[in-house]
Amino acid sequence: MAEENQNDNINEHERLSDELESRRSNLARIIEYGIDPWGGRFKSSATTADLHSDYDGSTKEQLEEKKVSVAIAGRLIAYRKHGKAAFADIIDSTGKIQLFFRFNELNEQPAGDGANLWDLLDTLNLGDWVGASGVLMKTRTDELTVRVAEWRILGKALRPLPEKYHGLKDKELRYRYRYLDLIANPEIREVFRARTEVIKTIRSVLDERGYMEVETPALHKIAGGAAARPFVTHHNALDIDIYLRISLELHLKRLMIGGFERVYEIGRIFRNEGMDRDHNPEFTMLEAYEAFGNLDTMMELVETMCRTACERVRGETVTKFRDHEIDFGPAFRRADYAELVREYTGVDINESRDRNTLLKACKDKELDVDDNATVGQLIDELFDELVQPDLIQPTFVVNYPVELSPLARKHPEREGFVQRFELFVCGHEIANAFTELNDPVDQRARFEEQQKMRAAGDDEAHPVDEDFLNAIEHGMPPAGGVGMGVDRLVMLVTGSHSIRDVIFFPMMR
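-> structure tokens emitted (509 positions)
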């Protein structure tokens, strides 16, 4: 068996070598003809989807009478020659169409030095980019086809495409060579079209509400706005270490302080943490802030964005994700954080947050926690491991412990809690929102408490940001703010099982 596999590998290598040699030989012939194998500007009159939409319903006789002239460009994915006729299939970004070549129509048309457009067909390989013009027709099998009057090479492919049925199926290879994945698996292109539609939907919902889209720095002197481990780099001119941003929050709040009352950014975030089917170290985040808004404002905004995105992509509010049917149509459930923890773990954080009690509860539940974990870390572990996986339908979890929320305003009626929610769907966090903390005295105290945790070894604790404290001391309006994971929302509405399925170029080992 090992010998058979070795022989198969040798044969495959020889086949590939012959294929590469053939393509190089065809390239040389094109150049000898005095033709540029890398093409240039070509103006298509329509997309393949437009042609099918407009003319699939026409009969062969109607097309002969109309004599519809078209120009189309695409990648060659099939080619077959029969005597003095040839057929080819090309694809563009919207679909596929057939081309028909006839010897007696192309043989007299020069293509270069000593070649005509019929001869030039012999230099084609699957994967080449071609442009063609002619008139539309229907074949005997009623297939819409371009009867080619002129054509030219727009880009030579020197390597073969993956086979349609036996080619690029391995997930790791698909992520690593996304450009081949998009060619070999057209359904993947639809996922990314859906991603674009989700982002357009988010923008349209925010724009309709008078939000202004802005851009803030990706390089930060202080990695703030979230509890996460940053990527560190060095700025040579300033001779200082700087960080790729882990959040958009603090700069957007600075803009609110400066007078822009409704702002948002859809931007890339970088966190130097683990990778799995729900996490990539580089991902897309939406953050939006509304002066004079609050938690309820943000709930309505998030609910509208999720529902509208699902409707625009799927045509309905229902989607299927990891064996669950999710409905964004009804009003999202609201659940209290402390009540959920008590229900699932028996621990009442309304009554007490004794560290030893919380540590014992985690150990009793066989959770993997450090003996030196803080109160906040222990509460978070109980929730993440025992509560969160059971939150399947869209659920706003409200009223978070203050230990977990250094940037949220305190709850006016419940000591030790803040005005914060997180949206969970299928056991995954989709959005995180606050009634924002705009009290500079309270904010400084929270930062200093976080600094103590940092000194004790918590490298995800929030550092003291003196410039931000200086900013809110100049007066920050009361506000609601939200951060939402765009990739995770795309996963939900497309039914994609891994975050790598919805990021064009995910990080790979």
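Residues 333-393 form one domain.
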